[in-house]
């Protein structure tokens, strides 16, 4: 498959009054054409910062690329000038934000907000751009698009606004669409509609999607591959089945265990103990070690490298080292692994 | 919209009636008489003069006479300041210079203030920003009469660029008073626009605009500016007040034959009908400004559009 975007050894810091916050500490991943890659992790894990750095939307005064590159179309995005980035933003790479209630300009009719990137990136007249915008609105399922072009954001509901934001993002048929928790601010029924819409549109225009979320239910629904981020690093990456049914990193185990389940007998929700690491002074070894009951001595001293689980599956944990003692994952994870061919707990087809 | 304005007009009418009533009785309570050298007149002479202006009538009769006249647009006649001249004519003849320096001051103040505020916000925490903040602090904390004197001294006397005072050289005469009046609106606008621009520039829709590929200037002017204007409209009212009160002092200092100067004199000589007339005139002006401000809100911010929005 064709790699459309490559993130290599990316390191990025914020300069704050308290000191240098190492928000991204060596992130590697590839994005393939037409796939949906979900990035999951708790707040502060660096998932939003990673994608915002691809778009170069972080404040230039306080953020700094320390290392690595972001390769797109043969160019390193970290080195482009602002002018060159403007030509890429909204055209080749576009973005959907978390809160549709605040991501549209309240004093501009939505028609103008949709035609803006079209007029910016394509050489067409205003009237043609309007037609394109109306078609886009129809595409995202907005009834009577001609009439609604002149209306302002406050005249739409939250779900409709997110549809408009999606229309804006798709205006120039981008090669990459970054969706930063696009359904988090919406209620559950609308969430499902928006996810369906995104899946439909992805097929229609054949775009690659980077989908950021902390909702594993959403991940299972939309993603082809999943990257789990923790403390500014990717700790595990693999296909959606590999992450859900054959997870290797203790943090992924914790994440999966803390997912509410319909058929769990006792209703008590599992929570990972402790708090995320302080990235002003990141831990020397495995960032998750302090919260992990599986931590070994080496986890405190040396960051684990990536161990290959399969061609598509990698995890950064010392537990995969040949000399590491075999440990039992949590009950709930073992239950999942039993359904996955290739895992050590596989019991034949469960379904 | 028409219905809304109609409603507002009724309220305005009630407000005006209250202001007129209040001012009327307030003046009657105050000591002093509009009749010059009243002490020297014999009681008979005094009675003749008072009868001429209706001052011999009982207070309620005077009040209703006045209010009835007011309803017909009659502000009465000047008792001593302009010796029998119609108050409406006096005000109208004096309005020109006041309106000119007021308008010029307001325009200069808001335009420069917006400019300062925008530049400060876009160049946050640089010397440009600090400079504009200092200008704003000076503009707010130093009263207009101090500016007026300073302008007269430096620009008028020392450098001889503009006439020091009087209303003889047309536009040139209006420059210094306009600048003096502009300082407060300038400082207020600069402060408001800076704060609001910084907040707006940090909002999600600005990030989205950036994500669309918009350039820095497109973001500042197409997306941020209009949203940053909204709170400025709120202070347009107080700014208009500052122009009015400022004009009382500034017109005195520059010896401009405007309403403010005439108002101050009328108070000193107790000319009831002129004081009443000018108060009512100022009130009308302010009430209209407030109405215009409320309508402007809707023009700039579609969320506050008055006719219910679903056009």
From TrEMBL, chain A:
Transmembrane segments: none annotated. It is found in: Cell membrane. Residues 5-256 form the ABC transporter domain. GO terms for molecular function: ATP binding; ATP hydrolysis activity. CDD domains: ABC_NikE_OppD_transporters (cd03257). It comes from the Bacteria. Keywords: ATP-binding, Cell membrane, Membrane, Nucleotide-binding, Transport. GO terms for cellular component: plasma membrane. It is a peripheral membrane protein. GO terms for biological process: peptide transport. InterPro entries: AAA+_ATPase, ABC_Ni/Peptide_Import, ABC_transporter-like_ATP-bd, ABC_transporter-like_CS, Oligopep_ABC_C, P-loop_NTPase. PANTHER family: DIPEPTIDE TRANSPORT ATP-BINDING PROTEIN DPPD, OLIGOPEPTIDE TRANSPORT ATP-BINDING PROTEIN APPD. Belongs to the ABC transporter superfamily. This is Oligopeptide transport system ATP-binding protein. It comes from Planococcus citreus.
Automatic annotation (TrEMBL), chain B:
Residues 95-297 form the ABC transmembrane type-1 domain. It is a multi-pass membrane protein. It comes from the Bacteria. It is found in: Cell membrane. One of its GO terms (biological process) is transmembrane transport. The keyword Acetylation does not apply. Keywords: Cell membrane, Membrane, Transmembrane, Transmembrane helix, Transport. The keyword Cell membrane applies. The chain crosses the membrane at residues 9-30, 101-122, 134-155, 175-193, 229-254, 274-300. GO terms for cellular component: plasma membrane. InterPro entries: BPD_transp_1_N (IPR045621), MetI-like (IPR000515), MetI-like_sf (IPR035906). Its main location: membrane. SUPFAM superfamilies: MetI-like. This is Oligopeptide transport system permease protein. It comes from Planococcus citreus.
């Amino acid at each position: 498959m064709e790699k459309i975007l490559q993130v290599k050894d990316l390191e990025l810091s914020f300069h704050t009054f308290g000191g240098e916050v190492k928000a991204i500490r060596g992130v590697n991943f590839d994005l393939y054409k037409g796939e949906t890659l979900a990035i999951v992790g708790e707040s502060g894990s660096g998932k939003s910062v990673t994608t915002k750095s691809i778009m170069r939307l972080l404040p230039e005064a306080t953020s700094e690329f320390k290392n690595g590159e972001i390769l797109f179309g043969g160019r390193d995005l970290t080195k482009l000038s602002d002018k060159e980035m403007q030509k890429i933003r909204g055209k080749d790479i576009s973005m959907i934000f978390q809160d549709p209630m605040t991501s549209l300009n309240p004093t501009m009719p939505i028609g103008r907000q949709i035609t803006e990137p079209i007029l910016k990136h394509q050489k067409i007249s205003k009237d043609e751009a309007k037609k394109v915008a109306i078609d886009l609105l129809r595409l995202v399922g907005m009834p009577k698009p001609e009439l609604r072009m002149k209306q302002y954001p406050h005249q739409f509901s939250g779900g409709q606004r997110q549809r408009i934001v999606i229309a804006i993002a798709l205006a120039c048929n981008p090669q990459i669409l970054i969706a930063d928790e696009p359904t988090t601010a919406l209620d559950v029924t609308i969430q499902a509609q928006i996810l369906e819409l995104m899946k439909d549109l992805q097929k229609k225009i054949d775009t690659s999607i980077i989908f950021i979320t902390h909702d594993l239910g959403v991940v299972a629904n939309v993603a082809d591959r999943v990257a789990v981020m923790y403390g500014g690093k990717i700790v595990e990456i693999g296909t959606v089945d590999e992450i859900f049914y054959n997870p290797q990193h203790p943090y992924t185990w914790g994440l999966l265990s803390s997912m509410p389940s319909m058929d769990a007998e006792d209703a008590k929700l599992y929570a990972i103990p402790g708090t995320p690491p302080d990235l002003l002074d990141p831990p020397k070894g495995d960032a998750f070690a302090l919260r992990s009951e599986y931590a070994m001595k080496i986890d405190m001293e040396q960051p684990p490298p990536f161990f290959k689980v399969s061609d598509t599956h990698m995890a950064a944990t010392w537990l995969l080292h040949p000399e590491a003692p075999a440990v039992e994952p949590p009950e709930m994870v073992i239950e999942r692994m039993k359904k996955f061919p290739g895992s050590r707990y596989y019991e034949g087809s469960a379904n | 919209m028409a219905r809304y304005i109609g409603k507002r007009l009724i309220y305005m009418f009630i407000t005006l009636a209250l202001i007129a009533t209040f001012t009327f009785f307030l003046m009657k309570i105050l000591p002093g008489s509009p009749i010059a050298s009243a002490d020297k007149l014999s009681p008979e002479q005094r009675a003749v003069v008072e009868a001429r202006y209706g001052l011999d009538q009982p207070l309620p009769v005077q009040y209703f006479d006045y209010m009835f006249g007011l309803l017909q647009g009659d502000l009465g006649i000047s008792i001593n300041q302009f010796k029998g001249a119609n108050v409406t004519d006096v005000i109208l003849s004096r309005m020109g210079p006041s309106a000119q320096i007021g308008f010029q001051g307001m325009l200069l103040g808001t335009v420069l203030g917006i400019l300062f505020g925008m530049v400060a916000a876009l160049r946050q925490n640089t010397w440009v920003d600090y400079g504009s903040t200092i200008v704003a602090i000076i503009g707010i904390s130093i009263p207009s009469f101090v500016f007026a004197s300073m302008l007269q001294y430096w620009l008028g006397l020392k450098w001889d660029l503009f006439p020091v005072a009087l209303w003889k050289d047309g536009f040139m005469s209006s420059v210094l008073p306009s600048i003096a009046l502009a300082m407060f609106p300038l400082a207020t606008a600069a402060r408001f626009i800076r704060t609001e621009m910084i907040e707006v520039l940090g909002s999600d829709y600005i990030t989205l605009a950036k994500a669309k590929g918009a350039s820095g200037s497109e973001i500042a002017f197409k997306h941020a500016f209009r949203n940053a204007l909204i709170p400025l409209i709120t202070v347009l009212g107080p700014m208009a007040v500052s122009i009015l009160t400022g004009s009382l002092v500034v017109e005195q200092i520059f010896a401009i034959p405007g309403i403010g100067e005439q108002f101050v004199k009328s108070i000193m000589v107790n000319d009831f009908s002129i004081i009443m007339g000018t108060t009512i005139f100022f009130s009308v002006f302010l009430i209209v400004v407030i109405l215009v401000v409320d309508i402007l809100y809707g023009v700039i911010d579609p969320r506050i559009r008055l006719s219910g929005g679903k056009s």
